[in-house]
Protein backbone atom coordinates (compact mmCIF):
# COMPACT_ATOMS: atom_id res chain seq x y z
CA UNK A 1 0.00 0.00 0.00
CA UNK A 2 1.42 3.40 -1.00
CA UNK A 3 -0.86 5.75 0.90
CA UNK A 4 -1.27 5.91 4.63
CA UNK A 5 -4.05 7.80 6.38
CA UNK A 6 -2.23 10.17 8.71
CA UNK A 7 1.01 8.27 8.92
CA UNK A 8 3.22 8.09 11.96
CA UNK A 9 6.91 8.79 12.01
CA UNK A 10 7.44 5.03 12.22
CA UNK A 11 5.36 4.36 9.06
CA UNK A 12 7.28 7.04 7.19
CA UNK A 13 10.64 5.58 8.23
CA UNK A 14 9.52 2.09 7.17
CA UNK A 15 8.67 3.28 3.65
CA UNK A 16 11.90 5.26 3.42
CA UNK A 17 13.96 2.21 4.38
CA UNK A 18 12.08 0.07 1.90
CA UNK A 19 12.70 2.59 -0.88
CA UNK A 20 16.37 2.96 0.04
CA UNK A 21 16.86 -0.82 0.09
CA UNK A 22 15.20 -1.12 -3.32
CA UNK A 23 17.38 1.71 -4.65
CA UNK A 24 20.59 0.14 -3.38
CA UNK A 25 19.63 -3.34 -4.50
CA UNK A 26 20.01 -2.76 -8.21
CA UNK A 27 21.62 -0.71 -10.96
CA UNK A 28 20.30 2.84 -11.35
CA UNK A 29 17.24 3.10 -13.60
CA UNK A 30 18.17 3.30 -17.28
CA UNK A 31 16.87 6.02 -19.58
CA UNK A 32 14.15 3.65 -20.82
CA UNK A 33 13.08 2.74 -17.28
CA UNK A 34 12.90 6.39 -16.25
CA UNK A 35 10.78 7.17 -19.33
CA UNK A 36 8.46 4.30 -18.45
CA UNK A 37 8.09 5.64 -14.88
CA UNK A 38 7.29 9.09 -16.32
CA UNK A 39 4.79 7.49 -18.69
CA UNK A 40 2.85 6.12 -15.75
CA UNK A 41 2.44 9.64 -14.35
CA UNK A 42 1.42 10.87 -17.81
CA UNK A 43 -1.20 8.10 -17.95
CA UNK A 44 -2.65 9.20 -14.61
CA UNK A 45 -3.11 12.79 -15.80
CA UNK A 46 -4.57 11.76 -19.16
CA UNK A 47 -7.00 9.24 -17.67
CA UNK A 48 -8.09 11.16 -14.58
CA UNK A 49 -8.49 14.75 -15.77
CA UNK A 50 -12.11 14.93 -14.65
CA UNK A 51 -11.44 13.27 -11.28
CA UNK A 52 -8.70 15.81 -10.59
CA UNK A 53 -10.93 18.76 -11.54
CA UNK A 54 -13.77 17.47 -9.34
CA UNK A 55 -11.52 16.83 -6.34
CA UNK A 56 -10.19 20.40 -6.55
CA UNK A 57 -13.69 21.83 -6.77
CA UNK A 58 -14.66 19.84 -3.67
CA UNK A 59 -11.63 21.20 -1.82
CA UNK A 60 -11.99 24.86 -2.78
CA UNK A 61 -15.79 25.08 -2.54
CA UNK A 62 -15.55 26.45 -6.05
CA UNK A 63 -12.47 26.08 -8.28
CA UNK A 64 -12.43 27.31 -11.89
CA UNK A 65 -12.54 24.06 -13.93
CA UNK A 66 -10.64 25.76 -16.75
CA UNK A 67 -7.86 26.78 -14.38
CA UNK A 68 -7.79 23.31 -12.81
CA UNK A 69 -7.46 21.68 -16.21
CA UNK A 70 -4.70 24.05 -17.28
CA UNK A 71 -2.67 24.16 -14.09
CA UNK A 72 -3.16 20.70 -12.60
CA UNK A 73 -3.42 18.53 -15.72
CA UNK A 74 -2.12 20.17 -18.92
CA UNK A 75 0.80 22.01 -17.36
CA UNK A 76 2.32 19.01 -15.48
CA UNK A 77 1.55 16.87 -18.54
CA UNK A 78 3.65 19.20 -20.70
CA UNK A 79 6.39 19.10 -18.05
CA UNK A 80 6.43 15.30 -17.99
CA UNK A 81 6.44 15.06 -21.78
CA UNK A 82 9.21 17.61 -22.17
CA UNK A 83 11.21 15.84 -19.47
CA UNK A 84 10.96 12.59 -21.41
CA UNK A 85 11.94 14.30 -24.65
CA UNK A 86 15.06 15.95 -23.18
CA UNK A 87 16.14 13.35 -20.64
CA UNK A 88 18.70 11.53 -22.80
CA UNK A 89 20.55 14.81 -23.28
CA UNK A 90 20.41 15.70 -19.57
CA UNK A 91 21.80 12.30 -18.56
CA UNK A 92 24.82 12.55 -20.83
CA UNK A 93 28.14 12.95 -18.92
CA UNK A 94 29.66 16.42 -19.37
CA UNK A 95 33.27 16.56 -20.49
CA UNK A 96 35.40 19.05 -18.52
CA UNK A 97 38.90 20.43 -19.04
CA UNK A 98 41.72 18.65 -17.21
CA UNK A 99 45.47 19.36 -17.06
CA UNK A 100 46.10 15.66 -17.52
CA UNK A 101 43.81 12.74 -18.15
CA UNK A 102 40.13 12.77 -18.94
CA UNK A 103 37.62 14.62 -16.76
CA UNK A 104 33.85 14.58 -16.73
CA UNK A 105 30.77 15.12 -14.57
CA UNK A 106 28.48 12.16 -14.30
CA UNK A 107 24.92 12.68 -13.03
CA UNK A 108 23.90 10.01 -10.57
CA UNK A 109 20.55 9.50 -8.79
CA UNK A 110 20.66 10.55 -5.13
CA UNK A 111 18.43 7.78 -3.76
CA UNK A 112 15.15 8.72 -2.05
CA UNK A 113 13.70 12.20 -2.58
CA UNK A 114 11.04 13.59 -0.21
CA UNK A 115 8.52 16.09 -1.59
CA UNK A 116 6.23 18.20 0.65
CA UNK A 117 3.64 20.33 -1.14
CA UNK A 118 1.25 23.22 -0.45
CA UNK A 119 -2.50 23.40 -1.17
CA UNK A 120 -2.86 26.11 -3.84
CA UNK A 121 -1.93 24.11 -6.98
CA UNK A 122 -1.54 20.65 -5.46
CA UNK A 123 -1.60 18.54 -8.61
CA UNK A 124 0.91 20.74 -10.37
CA UNK A 125 3.36 20.69 -7.47
CA UNK A 126 3.19 16.91 -6.98
CA UNK A 127 3.56 16.00 -10.64
CA UNK A 128 6.21 18.58 -11.54
CA UNK A 129 8.32 17.58 -8.54
CA UNK A 130 7.82 13.94 -9.46
CA UNK A 131 8.95 14.63 -13.05
CA UNK A 132 12.34 15.96 -11.92
CA UNK A 133 12.90 13.38 -9.18
CA UNK A 134 12.00 10.39 -11.39
CA UNK A 135 13.95 11.77 -14.34
CA UNK A 136 17.03 11.81 -12.14
CA UNK A 137 16.44 8.12 -11.32
CA UNK A 138 15.25 8.43 -7.71
CA UNK A 139 12.63 6.80 -5.55
CA UNK A 140 10.10 9.36 -4.31
CA UNK A 141 7.98 9.95 -1.19
CA UNK A 142 5.33 12.69 -1.30
CA UNK A 143 3.49 14.48 1.51
CA UNK A 144 0.69 16.61 0.01
CA UNK A 145 -1.28 19.28 1.89
CA UNK A 146 -4.01 18.48 4.39
CA UNK A 147 -5.93 21.61 3.22
CA UNK A 148 -6.99 19.82 0.01
CA UNK A 149 -8.10 16.45 1.44
CA UNK A 150 -10.04 15.32 -1.66
CA UNK A 151 -7.16 16.07 -4.01
CA UNK A 152 -4.49 14.68 -1.70
CA UNK A 153 -6.50 11.50 -1.21
CA UNK A 154 -7.05 11.18 -4.97
CA UNK A 155 -3.32 11.70 -5.64
CA UNK A 156 -2.52 8.99 -3.08
CA UNK A 157 -4.94 6.53 -4.73
CA UNK A 158 -3.72 7.32 -8.24
CA UNK A 159 -0.05 6.98 -7.32
CA UNK A 160 -0.80 3.69 -5.54
CA UNK A 161 -2.56 2.37 -8.64
CA UNK A 162 0.53 2.64 -10.87
CA UNK A 163 3.61 2.64 -8.63
CA UNK A 164 4.91 0.09 -6.17
CA UNK A 165 5.48 1.49 -2.70
CA UNK A 166 9.24 1.24 -3.14
CA UNK A 167 9.04 3.35 -6.33
CA UNK A 168 6.74 6.24 -5.37
CA UNK A 169 4.69 6.51 -2.16
CA UNK A 170 2.31 9.11 -0.74
CA UNK A 171 2.08 9.88 2.96
CA UNK A 172 -1.04 11.72 4.13
CA UNK A 173 -1.57 13.93 7.16
CA UNK A 174 -1.28 17.42 8.62
CA UNK A 175 1.50 19.60 9.99
CA UNK A 176 2.55 16.92 12.53
CA UNK A 177 3.05 14.41 9.71
CA UNK A 178 4.89 17.09 7.69
CA UNK A 179 7.17 17.63 10.66
CA UNK A 180 7.84 13.89 11.07
CA UNK A 181 8.40 13.62 7.30
CA UNK A 182 10.96 16.44 7.20
CA UNK A 183 12.88 14.86 10.07
CA UNK A 184 13.73 11.79 7.95
CA UNK A 185 17.16 11.16 6.42
CA UNK A 186 16.14 11.66 2.79
CA UNK A 187 18.76 12.11 0.11
CA UNK A 188 17.04 15.36 -0.89
CA UNK A 189 13.97 17.24 0.31
CA UNK A 190 11.84 19.51 -1.88
CA UNK A 191 9.56 21.64 0.29
CA UNK A 192 6.91 24.00 -1.09
CA UNK A 193 5.10 26.16 1.42
CA UNK A 194 5.24 29.21 3.64
CA UNK A 195 8.49 30.99 4.54
CA UNK A 196 7.71 30.59 8.25
CA UNK A 197 7.38 26.79 7.87
CA UNK A 198 10.45 26.66 5.61
CA UNK A 199 12.57 27.67 8.62
CA UNK A 200 11.32 24.63 10.58
CA UNK A 201 11.96 22.40 7.59
CA UNK A 202 15.52 23.64 7.20
CA UNK A 203 16.16 23.07 10.91
CA UNK A 204 14.73 19.53 10.77
CA UNK A 205 16.72 18.69 7.63
CA UNK A 206 19.91 19.97 9.25
CA UNK A 207 19.75 17.16 11.83
CA UNK A 208 20.42 14.64 9.04
CA UNK A 209 22.35 17.02 6.75
CA UNK A 210 19.63 16.53 4.14
CA UNK A 211 20.04 18.93 1.20
CA UNK A 212 16.88 20.98 0.70
CA UNK A 213 15.19 22.95 -2.01
CA UNK A 214 12.81 25.44 -0.41
CA UNK A 215 10.08 26.83 -2.66
CA UNK A 216 8.59 29.55 -0.46
CA UNK A 217 6.42 32.62 -0.86
CA UNK A 218 6.68 36.37 -0.48
CA UNK A 219 5.37 39.63 -1.85
CA UNK A 220 6.06 39.78 -5.59
CA UNK A 221 6.07 43.41 -6.79
CA UNK A 222 4.91 44.66 -10.18
CA UNK A 223 6.20 47.86 -11.76
CA UNK A 224 4.28 49.65 -14.49
CA UNK A 225 6.67 52.04 -16.20
CA UNK A 226 5.67 55.29 -17.89
CA UNK A 227 6.97 53.63 -21.06
CA UNK A 228 4.56 50.68 -20.81
CA UNK A 229 1.61 49.89 -23.01
CA UNK A 230 -0.58 50.94 -20.10
CA UNK A 231 -3.94 49.31 -20.89
CA UNK A 232 -2.31 46.01 -21.77
CA UNK A 233 -0.19 46.09 -18.61
CA UNK A 234 -3.19 46.76 -16.34
CA UNK A 235 -5.19 43.99 -18.01
CA UNK A 236 -2.37 41.46 -17.56
CA UNK A 237 -1.85 42.40 -13.91
CA UNK A 238 -5.55 42.26 -13.04
CA UNK A 239 -6.26 39.02 -14.89
CA UNK A 240 -3.08 37.49 -13.44
CA UNK A 241 -4.14 38.52 -9.96
CA UNK A 242 -7.55 36.90 -10.36
CA UNK A 243 -6.23 33.51 -11.52
CA UNK A 244 -7.04 31.09 -8.70
CA UNK A 245 -8.36 34.22 -6.91
CA UNK A 246 -4.79 35.38 -6.25
CA UNK A 247 -3.83 32.14 -4.50
CA UNK A 248 -0.61 31.60 -6.46
CA UNK A 249 2.91 31.91 -5.12
CA UNK A 250 3.93 34.02 -8.13
CA UNK A 251 0.77 36.18 -8.21
CA UNK A 252 1.54 39.91 -8.54
CA UNK A 253 1.20 40.96 -4.90
CA UNK A 254 1.19 44.77 -5.20
CA UNK A 255 1.71 47.19 -8.06
CA UNK A 256 3.73 50.38 -8.50
CA UNK A 257 1.89 52.83 -10.78
CA UNK A 258 3.10 56.29 -11.91
CA UNK A 259 1.32 58.71 -9.57
CA UNK A 260 -0.42 60.56 -12.41
CA UNK A 261 -1.84 57.24 -13.72
CA UNK A 262 -3.53 55.87 -10.60
CA UNK A 263 -7.02 56.98 -11.67
CA UNK A 264 -6.43 55.52 -15.12
CA UNK A 265 -5.31 52.23 -13.52
CA UNK A 266 -8.55 52.05 -11.52
CA UNK A 267 -10.62 52.82 -14.63
CA UNK A 268 -8.93 50.16 -16.77
CA UNK A 269 -9.05 47.59 -13.94
CA UNK A 270 -12.81 48.15 -13.61
CA UNK A 271 -13.27 47.71 -17.36
CA UNK A 272 -11.17 44.53 -17.43
CA UNK A 273 -13.15 42.93 -14.62
CA UNK A 274 -16.46 44.04 -16.20
CA UNK A 275 -15.39 42.34 -19.43
CA UNK A 276 -13.93 39.10 -18.07
CA UNK A 277 -15.85 38.74 -14.80
CA UNK A 278 -19.22 40.52 -15.34
CA UNK A 279 -20.47 38.48 -12.39
CA UNK A 280 -18.41 36.84 -9.69
CA UNK A 281 -20.59 34.83 -7.32
CA UNK A 282 -21.83 32.36 -9.93
CA UNK A 283 -18.93 32.82 -12.36
CA UNK A 284 -17.37 29.39 -13.01
CA UNK A 285 -14.01 31.05 -13.71
CA UNK A 286 -13.85 32.82 -10.36
CA UNK A 287 -12.37 30.61 -7.65
CA UNK A 288 -13.21 30.56 -3.93
CA UNK A 289 -10.78 31.19 -1.13
CA UNK A 290 -9.59 27.81 0.08
CA UNK A 291 -11.12 27.91 3.58
CA UNK A 292 -12.70 30.11 6.24
CA UNK A 293 -9.39 30.81 7.97
CA UNK A 294 -7.89 32.31 4.81
CA UNK A 295 -11.19 34.07 3.94
CA UNK A 296 -11.16 35.75 7.36
CA UNK A 297 -7.45 36.58 7.04
CA UNK A 298 -8.20 38.51 3.82
CA UNK A 299 -11.28 40.20 5.30
CA UNK A 300 -9.06 41.22 8.21
CA UNK A 301 -6.66 43.01 5.81
CA UNK A 302 -9.59 44.92 4.33
CA UNK A 303 -11.05 45.88 7.73
CA UNK A 304 -7.70 47.12 8.99
CA UNK A 305 -7.07 49.14 5.81
CA UNK A 306 -10.60 50.58 5.90
CA UNK A 307 -10.15 51.62 9.54
CA UNK A 308 -6.85 53.28 8.58
CA UNK A 309 -8.68 55.40 5.97
CA UNK A 310 -7.36 53.60 2.88
CA UNK A 311 -9.62 53.97 -0.14
CA UNK A 312 -10.89 50.52 -1.19
CA UNK A 313 -12.24 50.04 -4.71
CA UNK A 314 -14.29 46.92 -5.26
CA UNK A 315 -14.17 45.47 -8.78
CA UNK A 316 -17.73 44.21 -8.62
CA UNK A 317 -19.20 44.94 -12.07
CA UNK A 318 -22.52 43.23 -11.32
CA UNK A 319 -22.91 45.08 -7.99
CA UNK A 320 -23.51 41.70 -6.35
CA UNK A 321 -24.19 41.40 -2.65
CA UNK A 322 -21.25 39.63 -0.97
CA UNK A 323 -22.56 39.97 2.61
CA UNK A 324 -23.45 36.28 2.35
CA UNK A 325 -20.73 34.35 0.53
CA UNK A 326 -21.18 30.69 1.40
CA UNK A 327 -18.45 29.64 -1.04
CA UNK A 328 -15.85 31.98 0.49
CA UNK A 329 -15.62 34.09 -2.66
CA UNK A 330 -14.11 37.54 -2.12
CA UNK A 331 -14.70 40.65 -4.23
CA UNK A 332 -11.52 41.65 -6.11
CA UNK A 333 -10.45 44.87 -4.41
CA UNK A 334 -7.91 47.60 -5.15
CA UNK A 335 -6.36 49.32 -2.14
CA UNK A 336 -5.11 52.84 -2.86
CA UNK A 337 -1.70 53.48 -1.38
CA UNK A 338 -1.99 51.49 1.86
CA UNK A 339 0.73 52.29 4.41
CA UNK A 340 3.62 49.86 4.68
CA UNK A 341 2.74 49.29 8.34
CA UNK A 342 -0.60 47.67 7.43
CA UNK A 343 -0.83 43.88 7.44
CA UNK A 344 -1.78 43.83 3.74
CA UNK A 345 1.63 45.35 2.98
CA UNK A 346 3.48 43.09 5.43
CA UNK A 347 2.12 39.61 4.60
CA UNK A 348 2.01 37.74 1.32
CA UNK A 349 -1.59 38.51 0.27
CA UNK A 350 -2.50 35.21 -1.45
CA UNK A 351 -5.95 36.50 -2.43
CA UNK A 352 -7.66 38.89 -4.91
CA UNK A 353 -6.62 42.13 -3.18
CA UNK A 354 -4.27 44.45 -5.04
CA UNK A 355 -2.54 47.37 -3.31
CA UNK A 356 -1.58 50.23 -5.67
CA UNK A 357 1.56 52.12 -4.71
CA UNK A 358 1.88 55.44 -6.62
CA UNK A 359 5.44 56.47 -7.51
CA UNK A 360 7.32 59.41 -8.91
CA UNK A 361 10.72 57.92 -9.86
CA UNK A 362 12.00 54.44 -10.63
CA UNK A 363 14.86 54.75 -8.15
CA UNK A 364 12.29 55.28 -5.39
CA UNK A 365 10.52 52.07 -6.52
CA UNK A 366 13.77 50.10 -6.50
CA UNK A 367 14.60 51.40 -3.02
CA UNK A 368 11.17 50.31 -1.73
CA UNK A 369 11.54 46.83 -3.24
CA UNK A 370 15.04 46.44 -1.83
CA UNK A 371 13.88 47.50 1.63
CA UNK A 372 11.80 44.29 1.75
CA UNK A 373 12.83 40.62 1.78
CA UNK A 374 13.78 39.30 -1.65
CA UNK A 375 10.61 38.24 -3.49
CA UNK A 376 9.87 35.06 -5.42
CA UNK A 377 8.97 37.01 -8.57
CA UNK A 378 9.07 40.53 -9.97
CA UNK A 379 7.22 42.00 -12.95
CA UNK A 380 8.22 44.99 -15.03
CA UNK A 381 6.02 46.44 -17.76
CA UNK A 382 7.76 48.93 -20.03
CA UNK A 383 9.61 49.58 -23.24
CA UNK A 384 12.60 51.46 -21.91
CA UNK A 385 15.78 49.38 -22.24
CA UNK A 386 17.77 51.42 -19.72
CA UNK A 387 15.01 51.19 -17.13
CA UNK A 388 14.56 47.47 -17.75
CA UNK A 389 18.31 46.91 -17.26
CA UNK A 390 18.22 48.92 -14.05
CA UNK A 391 15.34 46.85 -12.66
CA UNK A 392 17.07 43.58 -13.59
CA UNK A 393 20.44 44.52 -12.13
CA UNK A 394 19.35 46.48 -9.05
CA UNK A 395 16.67 44.12 -7.71
CA UNK A 396 17.02 40.48 -6.73
CA UNK A 397 14.05 38.11 -7.02
CA UNK A 398 13.68 34.40 -7.73
CA UNK A 399 12.55 35.14 -11.29
CA UNK A 400 11.23 37.91 -13.52
CA UNK A 401 8.67 38.17 -16.29
CA UNK A 402 8.97 41.30 -18.44
CA UNK A 403 5.76 42.74 -19.91
CA UNK A 404 3.76 39.91 -18.40
CA UNK A 405 3.13 38.11 -15.14
CA UNK A 406 3.98 34.61 -13.93
CA UNK A 407 4.97 33.13 -17.31
CA UNK A 408 8.64 32.64 -16.34
CA UNK A 409 7.41 30.06 -13.80
CA UNK A 410 5.86 27.90 -16.50
CA UNK A 411 8.82 28.19 -18.87
CA UNK A 412 10.38 24.78 -18.34
CA UNK A 413 13.73 25.85 -19.77
CA UNK A 414 14.19 28.25 -16.84
CA UNK A 415 15.09 27.33 -13.25
CA UNK A 416 12.21 27.99 -10.86
CA UNK A 417 13.02 28.97 -7.31
CA UNK A 418 13.31 31.77 -4.80
CA UNK A 419 16.14 33.70 -3.23
CA UNK A 420 16.59 34.77 0.39
CA UNK A 421 13.25 34.65 2.22
CA UNK A 422 11.44 33.34 -0.90
CA UNK A 423 13.46 30.14 -0.98
CA UNK A 424 16.65 28.40 -1.98
CA UNK A 425 17.57 26.08 -4.83
CA UNK A 426 15.50 25.55 -7.95
CA UNK A 427 13.85 22.91 -10.07
CA UNK A 428 11.93 22.52 -13.39
CA UNK A 429 13.50 21.14 -16.56
CA UNK A 430 17.19 20.41 -16.53
CA UNK A 431 17.54 22.38 -13.30
CA UNK A 432 15.18 19.91 -11.59
CA UNK A 433 17.12 16.97 -13.01
CA UNK A 434 20.33 18.45 -11.60
CA UNK A 435 18.77 19.33 -8.25
CA UNK A 436 17.75 15.70 -7.76
CA UNK A 437 21.05 14.25 -9.05
CA UNK A 438 24.53 14.04 -7.63
CA UNK A 439 26.98 15.71 -10.02
CA UNK A 440 29.87 13.31 -9.56
CA UNK A 441 33.33 14.56 -10.56
CA UNK A 442 35.36 11.86 -12.31
CA UNK A 443 38.98 12.05 -13.46
CA UNK A 444 40.66 9.23 -15.37
CA UNK A 445 44.40 9.64 -15.05
CA UNK A 446 46.71 8.35 -17.71
CA UNK A 447 47.60 4.82 -16.62
CA UNK A 448 50.60 2.87 -17.84
CA UNK A 449 49.67 -0.38 -19.61
CA UNK A 450 49.66 -3.41 -17.27
P1 LIG B 1 2.42 25.57 4.58
O1 LIG B 1 3.87 25.87 4.74
O2 LIG B 1 1.50 25.86 5.70
O3 LIG B 1 2.21 24.01 4.24
C1 LIG B 1 2.95 23.36 3.21
C2 LIG B 1 3.15 21.91 3.58
O4 LIG B 1 3.98 21.82 4.74
C3 LIG B 1 1.87 21.14 3.90
O5 LIG B 1 1.94 19.88 3.31
C4 LIG B 1 1.91 21.06 5.42
O6 LIG B 1 1.24 19.93 5.94
C5 LIG B 1 3.39 20.96 5.70
N1 LIG B 1 3.80 21.44 7.03
C6 LIG B 1 3.15 22.26 7.89
N2 LIG B 1 3.87 22.47 9.00
C7 LIG B 1 5.04 21.77 8.84
C8 LIG B 1 6.21 21.61 9.64
N3 LIG B 1 6.36 22.20 10.81
N4 LIG B 1 7.21 20.85 9.14
C9 LIG B 1 7.09 20.26 7.92
N5 LIG B 1 6.01 20.36 7.14
C10 LIG B 1 4.99 21.12 7.58
O7 LIG B 1 1.99 26.34 3.24
P2 LIG B 1 0.56 26.40 2.56
O8 LIG B 1 -0.33 27.28 3.34
O9 LIG B 1 0.13 25.04 2.20
O10 LIG B 1 0.94 27.12 1.18
C11 LIG B 1 0.98 28.51 0.99
C12 LIG B 1 2.41 29.00 0.92
O11 LIG B 1 3.16 28.22 -0.01
C13 LIG B 1 2.48 30.43 0.40
O12 LIG B 1 3.45 31.13 1.14
C14 LIG B 1 2.94 30.27 -1.03
O13 LIG B 1 3.61 31.37 -1.56
C15 LIG B 1 3.83 29.08 -0.91
N6 LIG B 1 3.97 28.43 -2.20
C16 LIG B 1 5.17 28.49 -2.83
C17 LIG B 1 5.33 27.93 -4.08
C18 LIG B 1 6.66 27.97 -4.77
O14 LIG B 1 6.82 27.18 -5.71
N7 LIG B 1 7.59 28.81 -4.38
C19 LIG B 1 4.26 27.28 -4.69
C20 LIG B 1 3.04 27.23 -4.03
C21 LIG B 1 2.90 27.81 -2.77
Number of helices: 14
Q: Strand sequence of the main sheet, in spatial order?
A: 1-6-5-4-7-8-16
Mean pLDDT comes to 96
**Alpha-carbon Rg, integer:** 23 Å
What compounds are bound to the protein? Answer: nicotinamide-adenine-dinucleotide
CATH topology of the largest domain: Aldehyde Dehydrogenase, Chain A, domain 1
**CATH top level assignment of the largest domain:** Alpha Beta
Helix-and-strand structural type? alpha/beta
Helical percentage? 40-55%
Number of strands: 17
CATH homologous superfamily label of the largest domain: Aldehyde Dehydrogenase, Chain A, domain 1
Give the biggest sheet. 7 strands, mixed
Distance between the ends: 53 Å
GO molecular function, one term: aldehyde dehydrogenase (NAD+) activity
Protein name: Aldehyde dehydrogenase
Domain Aldehyde dehydrogenase: 4-442
Family: Belongs to the aldehyde dehydrogenase family.
Task: Describe the protein.
- This protein is an alpha/beta fold and 450 residues long.
- The chain folds into two domains: 237 residues, Aldehyde Dehydrogenase, Chain A, domain 1 (3-Layer(aba) Sandwich), CATH 3.40.605.10; 190 residues, Aldehyde Dehydrogenase, Chain A, domain 2 (3-Layer(aba) Sandwich), CATH 3.40.309.
- The chain is 42% helix and 18% strand.
- The protein is built from 14 helices and 17 strands.
- It has a seven-stranded mixed beta sheet, with helices on both faces.
- Helix 2 runs antiparallel to helix 4.
- The longest helix is centred in the N-terminal third of the chain and has 27 residues.
- The chain is globular and about 85 Å long.
- GO terms for molecular function: aldehyde dehydrogenase (NAD+) activity.
- It comes from Pseudomonas laurylsulfatiphila.
